[in-house]
Structures are given as C-alpha cells and as structure tokens.
Amino acid sequence: MCQSNDPLVHSKTFSNNGLQGKAMQILIIKRWLIVCCCMVVVMIFLGGVTRLTDSGLSIVEWKPVTGIIPPFNNSSWQSEFVKYQNFPEYQQRNIDMSLSEFKFIFWLEFIHRLAGRITGLLYLIPLLYFFIKGKINRSSVFVYLTILILFFVQGFIGWYMVKSGLILHPYVSHFRLGCHLIIAVIIYNLLFCQLMLGSFDILLISHGLKLSSQKFFCLLSLILIYMQILLGALVAGLDGGLVYNSFPLMGNNFIPKEVTFDSLNIQSFNDPVFVQFIHRIGAYMVSISIILLGNSLVKLAHPKLKRVACAILLVLGLQILSGIIVVLYSVPISIALLHQIFAIILLSCISWCYFLLDVNIELPTRLDRYLKIFYPSLTQGIIERSLRLRKIRVNSCKIEASFRVKAGDKIFIDSSLNLAVSTGKLLNDYLIYQDDYFIAIDKPAGLAVQSGSKIRLSIDDALQYLNSLGTEFKLVHRLDKDTSGILLIAKNYLSSIKMMRAFQEKIIQKTYLAVGLGKLQKNEGEISGMIGKKRGRGYEIVENDEEGGKFAITYYKLLKVLRTSADNNSNISLLEFTPLTGRMHQLRFHAKMLNCPILGDVKYGTAESITLSKKMLLHAQKIMLPKQIFGKEIIIETKLPSYFNLNSI
After folding, report:
1. Pairing between strand 392-394 and 438-443?
2. Angle between the 333-358 and 303-328 helix axes, to the nearest 10 degrees?
3. Distance (Å, rounded) from C-alpha 227 to C-alpha 557?
4. d(CA 122, CA 151)
5. How far apart are CA 312 and CA 330, in angstroms?
6. DSSP 414
7. Which of 14-23, 172-181, 393-402 has the highest mean pLDDT?
8. Which residues cross the membrane (predicted)?
9. Burial of 407 (0-12, 13-18, 19+ CB in 10 A)
10. Which of 214, 222, 236, 364 matches a 20 to 30 Å C-alpha distance to 423?
11. What 3-state DSSP class applies to 644?
C-alpha cells in the first residue's frame, strides 16, 4: 500500500474487509442491545432482592459519583452505620441491629446502585459512539434518546423512592416503588423491541392470514401485563403478600370482607388487602386474555404460530404457579423473585408475538410490493427481470409485477435467485478505501452502477441489499457501465449530503485516464459547450438549453503517444481528462469532439477505434476530496486495469 500522512493516499491494495466490517457493526449493535436488556433484567432482579430483604434504606445518601466507592475499613463502616442509625428504619425496626447485619443489607443496596450505574454507562457510552459514527438508524434515534432520558429519570425516581422512607416512617412509598419498577420495565421493553426490529426474520411465518383478533388479544395482554406488574409493585411495597395466604379464596370468600366498593377511592390503594385482591383479579384477566390469544393462534393451524402460543402458555403457567406459591407460603424470597422474572419473560413473549403478527398487517396485494416486504433485498428491477425469466411464479404461472395476490396463492421463487446477495459480495471484492464517512470501490468495466431494463445486476442492487440489513449506503455520483475506476459511496445520509454538495460545487477533483485514437490539435487544453441528447443518437452539440442541452467543460492533456501512424492522424495516445462538470457521457463525447475517440467506445467511436479494443479504455484513476468536506484531504488512486496493457499497444 502506498500511503503518506498528508494528504492521505490509498492504492488498490487497501484492505477489502469493509463491508464485512459493516455487517460486524450491525452485529455489535445487536449484542449491545442484548447486554443492555440482560443488565436491566439484572437490575430488576436486584431491586426485588433489596425490597424483599428490606435493604433499600441502608444507604441514606445519594452520591452519583463518589457513591461507587464502598466503605473500605472499620472506621468508614462505623461512619455509614452511624448515618443509618439517625433514620427511622433503624430507630423503629432495627434498634438491635449489629454492624455485621448492617453490612449485609448495605452490600445488597450498594450492589443494586452500582449495577444501575454500570447499566447506564453500558447504554450511554456505546450509544454516543454509535451516534457520532452514524451507526444508528435515523428512524430509531428518537427511541434511543427516549431510553436514555428514561435511564436518567429512573435514577432520580430511585432516590425519590428511597427518600420517602427516610422521613417519618421506615417504609418507602409503594406508589414511588411502582413507578420505579414500571419505568425499568418500560426501558427493558423498548430495548427488547429495538433488538427485535434489528434481528427479526420476517420470513418465519406465512402471510395472507386474518389476524385482527390475534392482534387485539396481544395488545390487550400487553396492557394487562403492564398493569399487573404495577399492581405487583404496590403489593410488594405494602407487604400485601403477607395477608390472606390462601388460594383461590381470600379467607372464606372470593371478595375479602375488608373490601367494600361503596367507599372505593385512591386511598383504597393504601390497603394491602384491597391491593392484593385487585392483583388477583388482574391475574385472572391476564390469564383469560392470554388463553384467548393462544387459542386464536392455534386455530390458525400454522406451525410457527402454534409454537409461539405454546411458549406463551407455558410461561403463563409458570407465572401462575409461582404466584400461587408466593401467596400460600407467605412470600418466600426465591419464589417471589422468580415470580417477578417470569413477568418479564411473559412480557417479552407477548412482545415477540406482537412482532410476528404485525408483519402481516396491511399487506399490499400487488405482487412486487408484497415481495419487497418479505424479501427487502429484491429491487424492483430484479423482481421484474425474475418474473420475465419465470424465476418467480404464482401458482406455477408466469405473471406481471402488478399481479394482485390473494390468500391461498402459492408463490414460487427459484433457488438460483441470489442476485442481491451476490452484488453485496461484489462490493466487498472491489473495495479499495473506507473511513467513517464513505467507501470507495474500484468498479470494473461492465458492472452497471444503476439498474436498467437490460442490466442483470448493479451496484445499486447491492446497496439496497445492504441497506435492508441496516446500513445507509447511498450513491453520490455515477460511472458509465463500461467505464472502470473509482466510485464513491456515502455511508450515511449526512455524508451523502456533504459529498453531493461538494460535487455540485465542483470542489471534488476527478482524474480519468483514457486511450484514444487520433491526433490532438493541442497537447493540452479545455473543451466546453452545450451538449444534449438526441433520440437514438447519443449526445451531440446543441445550440442552447431549450434543446435540452447542458453546459459541459473538460480539461484534457496528452500524456504519451503509444503508437504513431504514417500520417499521424491515427496515433494511439494516453490521455488525461479532468471534468469540471458531470454530464452523462461527457468525457466520451468530448473525446469524439477532439477527434480522438476512446478505444472500445461503441457509441462515440469510429469503426477503427472500436475494433482495436474489446473493452472501452476509460478509467477513473484518481479522485481528491478537499479538507473542507471531512476535515482532511483525501486522495484515492487506482492502477489501470490489466487490459489497458499500454506496452503492447
């Protein structure tokens, strides 16, 4: 690799692992979300431990930074113990507590708070990195920022909850406890949903199903589970699990005698008997809703949905069983913690089910639009070409892209249809440069940049395939199909705007090398004028823009005469072109106007120039991006393809 520090210069030998690296970045984001989800679940678990062991009030100060350092000697332990002794929990409930007993509850609360800080940092630091590097999908930015705000709110609510138990009574507010738990659950579910969006395989289930009732029960179950988790927090905050340790009745009645609906108001939620009763009613409602959901899924007679239903019903059964044991055995800590975790698992299962069902909502009936939903790597051009070649058929028949599919139609897709995948691999094979803003590929002659009616595959197909995996690649300029050389592709929307603006302002300098046949009047100079397209005849000079013409200007230079002719009118020369504008076929047309058409150019060449080369000898050899675009000057160069073979011409 040829490389210098200023400016940056990269040759053809640059590493070609860029697109594999991009796929790895997507995988890293998914793994980051998995870690965050697991850490939030751990936080919920530790919160349950601190609540069930009455450890939450052992640390009576909130020190967001210095609080990460625990007591490290006997003196500091005594200091913490003295602080604890000044508050109601010690004075009213734990007056006989020893230092060793205090250490036990202190460590539980300390670990809970430390885990909270670690979880927040594990979310914040990678998020900032992904955001700065443009790795976060624009459509997801709002969700990620919402989660970040909720993390900060969660920390504040946690201390606000603890503070309620440090004033008059040694009990935290059960309402604040419920708020603290429900925010944690919302954070988890948002993270889980982002993970599902990033890794969800929409090819898992069949389509064309009527799912309105399934979606209704799924959404109803989600709402009821959230309500039930909140009620569970209120029960825990009031020690409601210690009253009426019987099931299914509360004492000898279904409705306990303490519950009177005549005087029902907000104060009723301060009564542990009433809250436990409402929590039981909520459990019945959740069970009925989920059983109806499971039954409706099973009736669809679809194997995937049956497995989903079985998973949900299994977790529901475990949740019911653990809840009954908690009531009957007066809240054993281990079972109570399992009961809490099963609630999170059940919420995850229902969320997963919602995603599976949501895939089928509002499906278009046109075949091409239908296929794009379930096969995002298939472009419109690929679909239409595949239909013409019968690689995609409906009910074994050849049909048009506008064919309207209906439930029961069988869509056949040929196993050889791997164009999108192959074009993605193709980009990787020709990669010569990449940074945080763009990639550059050394495009071979014959590979189209954009799709067309006679084009089998293109770079645009590859980009659409990669973008379906979560990237944001975007073309910022183009090369003709038969032109080889450097092609720039932005990595994200912001980079594409900067690069396209730079092309419009003509501050990106491109250099092309070509082999032409003829004799130049001058060894260097410029050629300019209005050029426009005539139907069926390529580009020609036109008088003004009213005829469809656009101004084009190119600097040219004779680098070397490779072969001379007897009359000097058929010299073969190596030429350098520097276009100041970017019109279609500009260099090829200008070479023709210079009476030196490019070898192998079947559109603008002469009979002799066409026969001298099977490929068009035009190559985008060098490109320079000035410092004002990305803060550094970047020069990218490539070698001429082997078929130029200047020595043998």
Report:
1. unpaired
2. 160
3. 76
4. 11
5. 27
6. -
7. 172-181
8. 32-52, 114-132, 141-161, 181-204, 216-238, 277-298, 310-331, 337-357
9. exposed
10. 364
11. helix
pLDDT at res. 5: 33
Tokens of 27: 């995988």
Q: What are phi and psi of 163, to 5 degrees?
A: -60, -30
Which CATH number is 363-417 given?
Answer: 3.10.290.10
Rg from Cα positions in the chain = 35
pLDDT exceeds cutoff 70 at 333? yes
Superfamily of domain 509-641 in the CATH hierarchy: Pseudouridine synthase (3.30.2350.10)
Write the CA distances from 109 to 95, 186, 333, integer angstroms: 19, 22, 16
User: With bands split at pLDDT 50, 70 and 90, how would you rate the model's confidence at 358?
Assistant: low
Which pLDDT value is given to residue 133?
80
190 and 147 in contact (C-beta within 8 Å)?
yes
Closest CA to 270 of 202, 178, 196: 178
Q: Check residue 22 and give its pLDDT.
A: 47
pLDDT at 235 (0 to 100)? 93
Please state, in angstroms and rounded to a whole number, the distance separating the CA atoms of residues 57 and 493. Answer: 49
| Distance in angstroms (rounded) separating the CA atoms of residues 188 and 130 | 20
- pLDDT higher than 70, residue 182: yes
CA distances from 627 to 7, 10, 496, 633, 634 (A): 9, 16, 16, 4, 7
CA–CA distance, 486 with 523 (Å, rounded to integer) = 25
Residues making up the chain, counted from first to last? 649
Tell me: pLDDT of 376 over 60.
Answer: no
Domain locations in the chain as residue ranges? 23-199, 202-359, 363-417, 425-505, 509-641
Which CATH code of 3.40.309.10, 3.40.50.720, 3.40.50.10420, 3.30.2350.10 fits the domain covering 425-505?
Answer: 3.30.2350.10
Q: DSSP secondary-structure letter at 250?
A: B
Q: Residue 107 contacts by C-beta under 8 Å, 6 or more apart in sequence?
A: 70
Position 316 scores a pLDDT of: 95
Could you tell me which residues come within 8 angstroms of residue 129 by beta carbon, excluding any fewer than 6 positions away? 135
pLDDT, one tens digit per residue, over 628-639 is: 999 999 999 999
User: pLDDT tens digits for 601-610?
Assistant: 998 988 888 8
Among 203-212, 484-493, 613-622, which stretch is predicted with the lowest mean pLDDT?
203-212
Domains 363-417 and 425-505 share a fold: no
Model pLDDT for residues 251-270, shown as the tens digit of each residue: 888 988 888 877 778 888 99
CB 443 within 8 A of CB 449: yes
Whether residue 201 contacts residue 152, with contact meaning beta carbons closer than 8 Å, is answered with no
Q: What does the pLDDT read at residue 350? A: 93
pLDDT band of residue 204 (cuts 50, 70, 90) is: very low
Residue owning tokens 């002799």: 608
Using H for helix, E for strand and C for coil, what is the string for 575-592? EEEEECCCCCCHHHHHHH
Answer yes or no: is pLDDT of 11 > 50. no
Rounded average pLDDT over 310-322: 94
Tokens standing for 312? 């949900």
Burial class (CB in 10 A: 0-12, 13-18, 19+), 54: middle
Q: At what angle do helices 212-237 and 333-358 cross, to 10 degrees?
A: 160
Structure token pair of residue 624: 């320079």
**Backbone angle region of 599, left / alpha / beta, with phi > 0 → left and psi within -120 to 50 → alpha:** beta
Helix ranges (DSSP H) in 164-262: 174-199, 212-237
Given this model, what pLDDT does residue 8 score?
Answer: 34
Contact 342, 318 (CB under 8 A): yes
DSSP assignment of 352-387 equals HHHHHHHTTTT--SBHHHHHHHH-TT--HHHHHHHH
